[in-house]
Amino acid sequence: MSAGISNAPGTSSGSLLRRAGWRLERRLEVKPWHEVVTLVGAFIIGLAICSILIAASDKSVVDSYRALFDGAFGSRRAIYETLVQATPLIFTGLAAAFAFRAKVWNIGGEGQFFAGAMGAYFVSDLWSGVLPRGVMVPVLFIGAAAAGALWASIAGVLKARYDTNEIITTVMLNFIILLILSYLLGDLWRSPDTFYFQTVTLPESTHLPLMIGGSRLHWGFGIAAAMAVVVYVVLRRTALGYEVRGVGINRTAGSYKGISVPRVTVLVMAISGALAGLAGAAELAGVHHRLQLDISNNFGFVGIIIALIGRLHPAGVVVSAIAFGALVNGAVTMQIQTGIPAALVDVIQGLSLIFVLTGAVAVRYRLQRTRTDESLPALADPTDE
Amino acid sequence: MSDVLEALVNVGVLASAIRIATPLLLAALGEMVTERAGVLNLGIEGTITVSAFGSFVVADKADSLWLGVLSGVGAGILLSLLMAVLVSSIRVEQVVAGLALNLFGIGMAFYLFRAFYPQTGGEMPRSDTFDFAEIPLLANIPAVGEIVFGQHWLTYAAIGACPALWYVLNRTQFGLELRSVGNNPAACDMRGIGVTRMQYLALAFGGLMAGLAGAFLSVFLSGLFFVDVAAGRGWIALAIVIFGNWRIGRILAGSLLFGYLDAYQLSLQARGLEVPHQLLLALPFALTIAALVVNRRRSQEPLHLGVPYFRGER
Predict the structure, then answer these.
(1) Most buried of A18, A371, B181, B246, CB within 10 angstroms?
(2) Which CATH architecture has domain A76-335?
């Protein structure tokens, strides 16, 4: 595979291919349907490999996947629950997609999620007794966005000023914020009536209203979907979006066009952090209502994966976040009904991503039939296509 | 207060610092070599988890600790070779491939763990563990004997690997070539040094070392496997490589420092002292960021780190 895709003419498998009368060449243009086929194909291969795992543990593959699907989409309730699971992933997915568009590698979504949740808790703690719900909830989201932006900006400023590798700094910042939170939960923010590392339950005035009464589906999903539209518009229709994409395509050329690359870097980091922070607010105000160390199910990291599977496009992010939410949600039913460990879903997600990545490269090439007779020069042969 | 100070030089704390440093050192050395060949492997956390599981399950089921270590290392190498296929052959973005490997590796390890050991609610399954390998005579020296010469054999091996690795990287043709691949793959290609081959080798070595780190966690330290067995050590190893500015001596020092901070805060917690131990735990990460900024002018970071190499393009 390697040599075939590389442009290395001399390597062994390349000549193997050629001897068989095929050659790989770069496509001039990758059409959208190529990408869709790749994505669906990757997901199917991921599922197929996992069915081997299921079969190996003497369980019925069909029953297992049916339980997975039922749990995810089998009923109204299941669908709402899937959307609940998808909500934080849409935010963190958008956060990663926005940064990656500018080739700013923000791996700190996980930390910014917690920064956001902490910001939301901080303002709730301060004002939930004073402000009515209609004001408190927006304030809480603003607090979360600000905290997420602030935390991410540290990495942004360091990159802009000292050219430090943001992959490393954001990963380090993930750990630092979790430890700060752990400290606060053991001290200042600890609920007095419990031994656990958790805050008190926040009052009703901070709770996000439900989108569908009687379900757990809260307005966080609506906000997430709206943010997807906002991100799309910003990227496509504003000067900032132009700069972001410009820096992403070529940092040097961007600076020649009058784009201040350091400014855009900091701004992109901050916006990306704000989006991840909103996920923290949505989870705190929509689901948990109190701050704990385990309110994130790896949302920040999974968001990165979702962004890539969604091809860094807001609509793609929403679709793949819902797909991942469905997997997580369906896995619970699958585990209960068939005894297949829910961890299988992580394997499916990881494998799908690996194949999506592979497919994203592979889709740029195509196999082309060449002449079987190698002795003739390529262009001299009139039968050559 | 005196307790807080006493723990700083407590023999038990110092001994456990070295113990805690061992998997960090192993994984960091492997990652450093990988990065020297131009590949940033963010998948160490997953590799350590997979290896810890591989060691645990084989040590338990086959009842052989040595087979356990071997299979842990094998699992680590396999996962890293998958990384090599992705980044050196298919050339997907390294950061992403690493994260994918983490998700896949940790999920796979936990899935298989649950498949082998269904949840019963009873006690956690436990494998045998290696005994400490006390060095005769030397272990009898007061204090120093317990701290330095009463460790596991893998700890001695990890420390012994430092000079060996230094020699290979800095004094052999192979080491020079490996470092060149990370700095200027195009020039290597022209000289006939196989860039892809070198990256495969470097990643395999990284997988071997992360594999040993994983084995250390399960069949040396605890005899347990759980999903969070790596507990961020893969990421800390990554931090140590940067903190150590890609130099072996400093990586050794960094591992010991980070291990020491962890051992110290653990002992403070065990004594029930009300100190913000989280701040001690956060220190390594803050120091790493500081090191990145301070070292930026004399950074040893491989010039082509994280950049896929395409022959004939760019």
Answers:
(1) B181
(2) Orthogonal Bundle (1.10)
